[in-house]
Structures are given as structure tokens and as C-alpha cells.
Amino acid sequence: MARVEMTMPKMGESIMEGTVLKWLKQVGDSIEQDESVLEVATDKVDTEVPAIYAGVLTEILVQEGQVVAVGAPIAVMETDAAAAGAAAPVSTPAAPQAAPAPSSNGSAVPYLPEPHDPQAAQTAASAEHQPGRFLSPLVLSIAREEGVSMTDLEYLPGTGKENRVTKKDILDYVAAGKPSLNGTAAANTSVQAPAVAPQPQVAPATPAPAPVASAPSASVKPVPSVSGGQELIEMDRMRKMIAQRMVDSVRISPHVTSFVEADVTNVVNWRNKHKDAYKKREGENLTFTPIFIQAVARAIQDFPLINVSIDGDYIIKKRDINIGVAVALPSGNLIVPVIHNADQLNLNGLSKKLNDLAARARINKLTPADLEGGTYTLSNVGSFGNVMGTPIIMQPQVAIMAVGAIKKKPAVIETPQGDLIGIRHFMFLSHSYDHRVVDGSLGGMFVRKVADYLEQFDPNTAI
Fold this sequence. Notes:
Elements: E1 2-7, E2 17-23, E3 30-31, E4 36-41, E5 46-50, E6 55-60, E7 67-69, E8 73-79, H1 81-84, H2 137-146, H3 150-155, H4 167-175, H5 237-252, E9 255-263, H6 265-282, H7 289-302, E10 308-311, E11 314-317, E12 323-325, E13 327-328, E14 334-335, E15 338-339, H8 347-362, E16 376-380, E17 399-403, E18 407-415, E19 418-434, H9 440-455
Parallel strand pairs: 12-16, 16-17
Antiparallel strand pairs: 1-8, 2-4, 2-7, 3-6, 4-5, 6-8, 9-19, 10-11, 12-15, 13-14, 17-19, 18-19
Helix pairs in contact: 2-4, 7-8, 7-9
């Protein structure tokens, strides 16, 4: 047998670190080659990390919630020497860190609540003093905000693994009014930082603030407001990332939106004609979105300065046309997988690629590569019954289009015999663009060209 290290894999060209969300295997477990060992979160996607070799997990070097640089060791396995091949032997591993390391950009480390066993709960009266115990960044953050002393944290009973204090433990303690633990004052020394030793005070300088930033998760009973008319809901990790990116985009790009209404009667009639046969043949739904993607890709070929990004005083013109498509997840969050080289795919190829990405997005099986390299984004707000919207640009792109719900309307139809009134299918297109590099003429002509391609859709198109 040989001992080999598992390292944090590189999960995308721009990803330099990952956060360990959950260990799927424990020390002593046998692992098959390519079997998932842990879940890792990056700033793009959550994914499972498989084992490169078959063997037995002998040591876990990082804790859940810890941020780890790409290439850093995360676990040790015992595996067959022949199977390991050229794998480097493990040197004596460093002891696991007492607390999760901060990310390179100084942001807070995401944290996954530990399992809770109600039967293991202890009362304050039987609390044992545990100086130097491991405390997660989330628990320390809540303690600082709620004025809980380090001394109380050393006495607070923990219901997590190895008696660790979980988020629920400290929130329950705060909700109970921070009762004295082993005779200590409830808030004699607030936590300032994980490495600072407690400095007892005679009395708290100010009353503890209301729990605003440390909102409980859905599995934890919210702390009621004074009036009883509010409920605190903590953002999940993805929602926090979305929120930050949207704020950044609005700050970076001066948004302008142009609107066009397109007659998509030919598109509707064509889809109605082919959707049942396509479902029977491919086992997948034929939606309108591949047709919209194809029209956008063609318009980008006509107006390549939409397919750019900005780097300081330079405009970076992209050769590849990689179109991201916003997908709604069961959680209510949105994620944007990318169809690479969309201009090189026919309608059948676009439909199959889109269905694959959407299906894997909804079960959290996207890879970082599925989310990278987008040069333009399409959002189908019509799928929610909305007739139009003003989407926010996905940085570092400079434009995004929203397509609204298709509605029947009476319209004037021009014929060689004269004008007639008929029922047609119409749809609004909303084009938001970065006014630093896209002027109204370019932004307006682009969305008009997309509408033209949709209106000129060939009813005899094969699928």
C-alpha cells in the first residue's frame, strides 16, 4: 500500500481556490476510483470532487467551511502502490488548522451548518469549560454581533461533531437572553477576533444589538422581532454571490435599455408543427429559446462590437460567440450556463445543448467549464409570464437581452391586394447594454436585427 495526497483540483481557468462544503466520505471509508469524496464550492459553481485512485481514506486535512488554494493537500489516502503509479508519496502532513483560513480576497469563509442532534443538547448548568476549542467563522461572527463573550463561548454546550458549537447553539443561546454560563456574565467580553484573548469587563457598555446580519437558516427557528411581524431569513451562499455581482454590475456599467416588438408568428407556427415529432424522436422538449439563441448569434456576427469586454482603456473583441442562458433553479436563484460557439450549432444542436445544461443546472451538476467564457447573455423572462424586463449585464460582458412572453394581438397585414387585419403573435425584446462602449445606435440596431431574424424565420427550417 502507498500513501498519497488528494489535492484541491483546478476547477476552471480563473478559479484559484475552493471552499469545502461537505465531506461525503469519512476516515476509514473505502473509496472507489472516480467516486465522489467531497463537495467543493467556488465562486462559480458547487461540484463534487472524485478520487483519482481507489483506496481507503486515512486522514482529512481540512474542515468543512475551510477555503483551500488549488493544489493544496486536502486528504490522505492509502492506495495500492501499482495503482498509484507516479503519485508522489505523502510527506508528514501538517496538522489541520485550528480555524478555516480566510480567502485570498479577504471575504468571509462560507460555512455549512453542522448536523444537529437534539438528544445531545446539554444544559447551561452542566456546561464544561473548554478553553481553546475550535469555533467556526460563522459562530465567531455571530458572537461579535450579538455581544457574546469568548468566556461564554468556552462554556457554551455544543451539539455539533466533537461537541462543537453550531449556528443553532449560539442562536438559541442569544434567543434565550444569553443566560449566565457557570456563573459568568452574559456579555462580559464581546468577541473581537478569533485570535484575541478575552478581556473581562465589569458590565456591558451597550446592550446587545438585534440579530440582523446573522439571520438563521430555514432549518433554524427564526428569532422573532419585538413586534412579532417580521421573520429573518438568511441568504444562501448563491444568493449572496448574485447580490454582490448585481451590485457590482450596476456600479461598473452605465446601463441603457432599448426595446423592440417582434412579430414571431412564423416561429410559433413552426414550433407548433414540429414539437410533438421532436419530443417523440429526441425525448426532449423543443422550446422557443434555441431559436432566440440562433437569432442572437447571427446578429452578433453582423454587429461584432456587441461581443466585447472592457479592460481599462481597451476594448477586447471576442472571436468566439459564447451565449449564456439564464436558468431558474428550484431554490429561486438564477444561474447562467454557457453555450460555447453557439454560432456553429444548428437548431437541433442548440436545443440539445440547452436542454442538457438546464437539466444539469437544476440538479447542481454543472461544472465550472459550463459557466465560463460567456460573451453575451439571453434571459427568457417570458417563461415567467412577463412581457418585458430590463436585465442587468453579466460582467465582464457589455450587453444582455431579455425576451418576453409571446402574446396574440390584432395587427395590420400588408398584402399585394391591400392591408388586412389579422391575429399575429408578438413578443418584446429588451436589450440592456453598457453605454461606455455601446452607443444607442449600436444597441438599438442590434436588437432590431435580432427581431428581423425572428420575423424572417423560414417556416421550412428542418430540425
